[in-house]
Amino acid sequence: MPLDTASHRRAAFDRDGFLVIEDFASPADCAALIRRAGDIVAGFDPAEAASVFSTVNQEKTSDDWFLTSGDQVRCFFEEGAFAPDGSLRQPLDLSINKIGHALHDRDPAFDRFSRDPRLADLLADLGMARPLLMQSMYIFKQPRIGGEVVCHQDATFLYSDPPTVIGLWFALQDATVDNGCMWALPGGHRAGLKSRFVRRPGGGVRMDVLDPTPWPPVSPENGYVPLEAKAGTLIVLHGLLPHLSGPNTSDRSRHAYAVHCVDAAASYPADNWLQRPPSFPARGF
Question: What angle do CA 245, 246, 249 make, to 5 degrees?
Fold first, then answer.
């Protein structure tokens, strides 16, 4: 189905749970974000926090550096970044998993990119009445050690009542099967929410299982499709869509930038892991 009209985009999104829009970002825009992310990493002192990000062991790796990052710009390491003696296996710029989670509000370059008026129009086409930019991440998917992102739904981590989260994922470098592109289960968003990642009342986090039925094993035979994307492509993700990416075992990085939006018309619970202080609330476009 062509995506040249609002009605076509809405129909495809409702049917599949995702959209793939090529050539959304220019080569210059992609290069500018890559340079800016490099500058942020270059200014990061690993002694400040050696926090590892992992979706495989997220309850164990969600430390205070992570849980207080909702309104900050912070670097997180790959699981495979450290040798047994605690030293980095490779240079710092090849050891970071991601930067999160408020680039869109704290950094001028990412702010401008994230608040492109075309994105506001696209979200309106998809039915989001009052979008708030809640979270952003720069994802490196480093060569050889870029970590797996297990099958998940974005609404697990950014729940609203009713569920409204939409992910905007931008390929800044070519994403292929070889270097860990995303995979998705078309139509899987209609199966409902499987779990919620919430803060424990006494501190820490837990995963509350709402539906224990597992996703089908990841394979083309079970309906999963690779979302290979050339640099500049925007992939729009329904908050209930099951999606994932494998580890990057290639020699090529797979840089990407993602922004997650929720509708201000919905309730955003206080037990969601990502919280913004009253002094620095989430903003729209």
Answer: 135
> In whole angstroms, what is the distance from residue 201 CA to residue 128 CA?
31
Per-residue pLDDT tens for 85-119? Answer: 888 888 999 999 999 999 999 999 999 999 999 99
Beta bridge partners of 136: 101, 259
Q: Letter for the amino acid at 142?
A: Q
Nearest to 25 by CA among 143, 174, 130, 150: 174
The CATH superfamily label for domain 6-263 reads q2cbj1_9rhob like domain (2.60.120.620)
Q: Which of 69, 68, 76, 84 is nearest to 46 (CA)?
A: 76
Residue 261 to residue 123: CA distance in whole angstroms: 9
In this structure, what token pair is assigned to residue 83? 């040798």
Q: Which amino acid is at 132?
A: L
- Has this prediction a pTM greater than 0.90? yes
